[in-house]
Amino acid sequence: MLLVFAINTGNCVTFVAVTKLEVMEGDRGKYTKDPVKVRFTTKADGRKSISFEIYQNGKRTYERLPDLFLLVETDDNSIRKNRATLNKVEKLRKQRTKELQKNPVPDKYISIKDTGQSPIMLSSWMDQYYTIQKSRGVRELSKITRTKKFLLTYSEDLELCQIDKSFCIGFSNCLKTEYKMSDGRCLSPKSGFNILCELNTALNTAVREGILVTNPFSLLSSSEKIQPVEVVREYLTINEVKQLIRARCGNETVKRAFLFSCNCGLRLSDVRALKWKDIYSDNGTWKVATRMKKTENVVYIPLPGQALKWLPDTERNAGSNVFPDLTPYALSKYLKPWVKEAGIMNKNVSYHTARHTYATMLLTLGVDLYTVSKLLGHTSIKHTQRYAKIISQKKDDAVRLIDNKL
To answer: Which of 42, 6, 36 shows the shortest CA–CA distance to 19?
Structure first.
């Protein structure tokens, strides 16, 4: 039998359910404290989410039951459904208690370290994580803000210690199939993958900061995560780059920045952050030193004459940006019309195409994979091997040309 008590925690009402055995008066010799309690937290729509509060070996852990909740009791039908839900919860609680008795070390559940302070809410931790990453020099912070938004869309704000394996699986499934964008389309696998990666990093940071004992995301199997679909890596041939050089572009900054990246491989985020002080001469060889936003690695890339040629003819103050006018608006307005003006009709060209073009040109000209990997700033050569597939395909096409001629 479950008895439910309401506790006002300030921003929400939490209902704690205990068994009759815990509150009844009677023979003290038969009294045993149940290690598993049921918690109900009121959501914005009036429903109550359900979770287990598990106390064992001096540690308190939480396990969310994402598929079970209590309805607002407005009629006999909702009352009957709630009664059936409570019966199911009680069966699950007893089953969980038996599991704990067989395996007294709950290592598969996340637990928060006992600091004597109030529990940290998930949204508050994401704000703290944002501050930590910013202090470390991480520049791509918008991903953290976006991940927090998706988390709060999926669930009401929970205590950080309530984020367990079942929460991570439910969030992953939501990103895979349930979340719809404003145009009705599902989230792309790559976007979902990036959001999960950011959550994983945030939880790992909480472990390193001594707030969490374990990261529940590490318990997920590959099938329970989102695997990004490998997309076709669009790139331009040398002749197509020449076509772009000859074609008129409505924005000189867009043209110069894109062709600069075609000859040095920098990502858009790195080009936008590039300052004049990052470009220097080393024994007659011009180089660029930059901390890549995506990997946070500092790379030193030699700049060929073709790259230097496309640097803007402006006053070169050391602390100022090289391409200050390279805005998202300018790219969205001028890049594709410029590509169309150049007569390139069969390729979906984005700014990142310039990076792919740089990599494929190097490999086509015979530069080894390891060197290309270092020039691109890849943390692992396996990332560079994706471009090798493109070169392999080009070799196959070249052999087919012989067959066609003969």
So the answer is: 36
Query: Is the CB of residue 276 less than 8 Å from the CB of residue 317?
Result: yes
In 3D space, the residue among 245, 303, 252 whose CA is nearest the CA of residue 274 turns out to be 303
- For residue 305, give both structure tokens: 């004459």
Q: Cα separation of 398 and 171, whole Å?
A: 46
More confident residue, 296 or 219: 219
For residue 73, give the amino acid letter: E
pLDDT per residue as tens digits for the range 176-211 = 888 777 777 888 888 889 899 999 999 999 888 888
Element (H, E) at 190: helix 189-208
What tokens were used for 255?
A: 């043209």
Helices (H), 209-251: 238-246
CA 275 from centre of chain: 28
Mean pLDDT of 291-304: 77
What confidence score (pLDDT) does residue 20 get? 44
What does the block give as tokens for 32? 């045993």
DSSP letters for 245-258:
HHS--S-HHHHHHH
Helix 165-173 vs helix 189-208: crossing angle, to nearest 10: 160
CA distances from 32 to 17, 98, 101, 154 (A): 16, 14, 13, 37
- The predicted-structure confidence for 320-345, as pLDDT tens digits, reads as follows 999 999 998 999 999 999 999 999 99
Report the SS3 class of residue 337: helix
Report the C-alpha gap between 48 and 45 in whole angstroms. Answer: 9
Region label for 218, one of left (φ > 0), alpha (ψ between -120 and 50) or beta (otherwise): alpha
**Confidence tier at 117 by pLDDT (50, 70, 90):** low
Separation CA 245–CA 236 (nearest Å):
12
Which residues, in sequence order, are bridge partners of residue 52?
38, 63
**How far is Cα 47 from Cα 62, in angstroms, rounded to an integer?**
19
**In the beta sheet, which residues pair with residue 302?**
287
Residue 19 scores a pLDDT above 70:
no
The rounded Cα 270 to chain-centroid distance in angstroms is 19
Report the alpha-carbon angle 338-339-345, nearest 5. Answer: 140
Question: What gap in Å lies between CA 266 and CA 274, rounded to an integer?
Answer: 10
Q: Can you give the pTM of this predicted structure?
A: 0.53
